[in-house]
Structures are given as structure tokens and as C-alpha cells.
Amino acid sequence: MSAEVPPVPPNATVPPNATVPPNATVLEVEDLQAGYGPYRALFGVSFTVEHGEAVALLGPNGAGKSTVARVVSGLVRPSAGRVRLEGRDVTGFAPWRIARAGLAHVPEGRAVFTTLSVEENLVLALGRRGSRGDVAASLAAVYERFGVLADLRRHRAGTLSGGQQRLLSLAKVLAVPPRVLVADELSLGLAPSVVDDVYENLVALRGAGAALLVVEQQVERALALASRAVVLDHGSVAYDGPVAGAMEAVARVFAGPGVTSASGTRGADTVGVGARTWVAARGGNRPMTGYGEEPGRRRSWRTSRRRS
Ligand SMILES: Nc1ncnc2c1ncn2[C@@H]1O[C@H](COP(=O)(O)OP(=O)(O)OP(=O)(O)O)[C@@H](O)[C@H]1O
Ligand SMILES: [Mg+2]
Fold first, then answer.
1. In 3D, which of 182, 172, 186 has the Cα closest to residue 141?
2. DSSP per residue over 151-205, as a string?
3. What confidence score (pLDDT) does residue 94 get?
4. How far is the centre of ligand 2, averaged over its atoms, from the C-alpha of 18 (Å)?
5. Is the CB of 61 inside a 6 Å radius of any atom of ligand 1?
6. Ligand 1: does its nearest atom lie under 6 Å from the Cβ of 42?
7. Mean confidence (pLDDT) of the chain
8. What is the pLDDT of residues 248-278, one digit of tens each?
């Protein structure tokens, strides 16, 4: 796959919402509770994302990261709590209304219409996101940014590789720069060089004034982009603070109950170091699994930048 992904131009701006003060809290979740049928996945999750800020949403597999993302974008209705977007209560709004309000969600997996071509996917995204501009010009801008998609424009999305479909998901979202981006495991299935380029786009989007909530298994990637981190554990917030403290919080969550974060403890020994030490800290050469596992699904934290 080509690594040619020029970043969003630094002078690009996210259209402001005239009714919202520039430094306002852009995204606020308050005491969210949500689940799937009788299963409860979130137990009172609260945090905020400010204007022009990136927040990394971290946690082991099954911690509830994607559920938070789905609630925020309207795909899952919370059983309690509030979601506010630029001060407006959007709890329980349909996904299209939340998208129209300026929030874009790149969900886990491949959010493309597999039977449509790459270009048809992009045209649909432009229409759905309320782009009033010239579709041809918008498409040209997307193809300039994501050269590999230009080469594949006539191909059915379902025939693309997993990584290319992931890239198409992101391209669909960036075609109309959102004011809030919720990205769920963006790097999954992408070659490391492409991940570099994708993250450059995220940095530029943040610089253009968007608020970013980034769910990422490659912890270092997310922390390099973010100024704050929220660490989830079993559907509750275990840490909400600067990235400087996030690795220790992550280590603590992985070490489990009864392990403190004080210097010299098992959890603290792992802070800021690589994946092998994480494994060692968890008691041997076992896979770094979370809880709530489903057979056949990928299960781990990734502190390495490389993914095979
Ligand atoms: N569609 C679903 N139906 C039933 N349970 C679900 C569904 N989606 C998620 N869950 C469960 O809800 C809990 C939270 O899942 P969620 O996908 O939000 O976790 P996550 O932190 O995103 O995990 P991962 O790192 O594996 O993506 C898990 O126990 C999971 O098994
Ligand atoms: Mg997930």
C-alpha cells in the first residue's frame, strides 16, 4: 500500500460553530451507563474533551472504549447519563443528527459499503455529512490526500484489503473536516508507515481546531497525539489526567487490584517501557489479554509502534 498520505493542510480550518465560545468544552459525557441487552458495559463514565484537544481513551479489551464511542455517536443509547456536544444535550439523538451537529465517528472495523465503489462511498459520505461544496473538488482533495484511494476509485470497497478499507473509512470522515472526531482503533490493519501518515492527519485536524477522542490499542501512538488520557477499566474511569500519568495508570489497571502505583511496585516498574516488560510484569510470557474475551478476537494492549 502506498504511504502517500499528505496531511490536512495546516491552514485548513474546522468550520466554527458560531454559537459556541472558542474555548468551550466541545464534548462532555456525564455519568454514562450503557450496555447491550441485560449486559452492562459502562458504569458511570464521565470526562470532557476541549476545543482543539486530543484525548486518548485507553483500556484493556472489553473495558468499554468502543461502547463509549458508540454512545457518543448515537449508535448505542445510554441507559443513564448525558452526552453534550458543544454544550448541547444530544443524548439519545439519532446518529445522523449527531453527525450533522459536527461529530464524526470512525468505528471499529470497516465502515464502508462493500458493494459500492471507493468513489461511491466517498460521494455518499460527502452528501451525508452535509457538504455543500463542489463534490468533484472535494473528491479531488480526498484523492490528493489519500493517493492509494485515487488508484482504487473504481474498485468495489469490498475487494480492498482490510487496511485500505480502514483508510477509506478515515477518508470518508476527513472529506468534510469534523469539529469532533471519535476514532476507534484507526491504526488497526494499517502498515506502520501509513499509520504515521494517518496520525499526521490527526495532528493537523487537531491543529485546525477539532476535538479528538482517540481509542487506540497502540498506546504510544495515542499518547503522542493526546494531551490527556482517560483510562477505562471494567466500564469505569480508572484515570483521567495528563498523558504523563497515563502509562502508570495503564500499568495499574493491568496489574489488577491490590497492586499500588507507588515506586517499586510491580505496576510502577512497567511505566513508560515496551511491550516485553508489560508481559514480564504480568507474570510471564502469556498473551496480554484483557477480560470479557470473545474467541478469535484480537486481545491485547499494544505499546509497540509496530504491528504485524
Ligand atoms: N454488540 C455487543 N453485544 C453484547 N456485548 C457487547 C457488544 N459489544 C461489546 N460488548 C461487550 O461490552 C463490553 C465492552 O465492550 P467494548 O467493545 O466497548 O470494549 P473495548 O474496550 O472497545 O474492547 P476492545 O479493546 O476489544 O475493542 C465487553 O465486555 C464486550 O464483550
Ligand atoms: Mg473496541
1. 172
2. HTTTSBGGGS-HHHHHHHHHHHHHTS--SEEEEESTTTT--HHHHHHHHHHHHHH
3. 94
4. 33
5. yes
6. no
7. 79
8. 999 898 887 654 444 333 333 333 333 323 3
Domain residue ranges of the chain, discontinuous segments joined by +: 25-111+178-281
Residue located nearest, by CA, to atom 25 of ligand 1: 61
User: What is the CB neighbour count within 10 angstroms for residue 84?
Assistant: 16
Q: What is the pLDDT of residue 14?
A: 57
* Residue type (1 letter), 56: A
Least Cα distance to 64 among 52, 81, 50 occurs for: 81
Query: 114 vs 54, 70, 104, 121, 165, CA distance in Å?
Result: 30, 21, 20, 9, 9
Cell of 106: 470512525
* 91 pLDDT above the threshold of 80: yes
Kindly tell me the burial class for residue 287, based on how many C-beta atoms sit within 10 Å of its own C-beta (0-12, 13-18, 19 or more): exposed
Amino acid at 195: V
What gap in Å lies between CA 126 and CA 132, rounded to an integer? 9
CATH architecture for the domain at 25-111+178-281: 3-Layer(aba) Sandwich (3.40)
Half-sphere exposure of 223 (CA within 13 A, CB side): 24
Q: In this structure, are residues 244 and 254 in contact, taking their beta carbons and an 8 Å threshold?
A: no
Q: Which atom from ligand 1 is nearest to the alpha carbon of 217?
A: 25
Which band of pLDDT confidence, cut at 50, 70 and 90, is reported for residue 134? Answer: confident
Query: What are the beta bridge partners of residue 242?
Result: 228
* 236 neighbors 224 (Cβ within 8 angstroms): no
HEC string of 30-83 equals EEEEEEECCEEEEEEEEEEEECCCEEEEECCCCCCHHHHHHHHCCCCCCCEEEE
